[in-house]
Structures are given as structure tokens and as C-alpha cells.
Amino acid sequence: LNENKFEEAQKRLHTLKGSAGNLGITPLHQACVELDNQLKTGSFELQTLENWQAVFAEMMACLDNLPAQAS
Length: 71
Description:
- By secondary structure, the chain is mainly alpha-helical.
- About 70% of the residues lie in helices and about 0% in strands.
- It contains three helices and no strands.
- It has helices at about 5-25, 25-40, 45-65.
- The longest helix is centred in the C-terminal third of the chain and has 19 residues, at about 45-65.
């Protein structure tokens, strides 16, 4: 988004939104929906981006805390 590549960012976000929805990760899915809707217009509100970043970071921290699977 720093380089104003809204179309590329929107495509990646759309994919993440679908994955989060399929996995039942509702907070991430909702944050993706909100940001995705804004990116489709070619702009976004900073608060929406910051909310998405916070939710994404929280979900990644949860994943980091999962036990490693034995091979």
C-alpha cells in the first residue's frame, strides 16, 4: 500500500479474506472484509488498515503459539 499498489493488495487481501472465512477465523475475516471493501475504491482509511494490522498480528501470534507437529 505504501507504493499505491491497491489492485495487487486488494487481490492478496481478497485471498486472505476467503481463507480466513473458510477456516472460521472470524475476526481476521471481518477485518479483511472492511479493508477489502475500501481498497476496491482505490483508497482506504488509516484506522481500517491499523485495525487489520492489529488483528493480523494477533492471529499470527496465535499461530506461533501452536505446538509443532512431529514428523
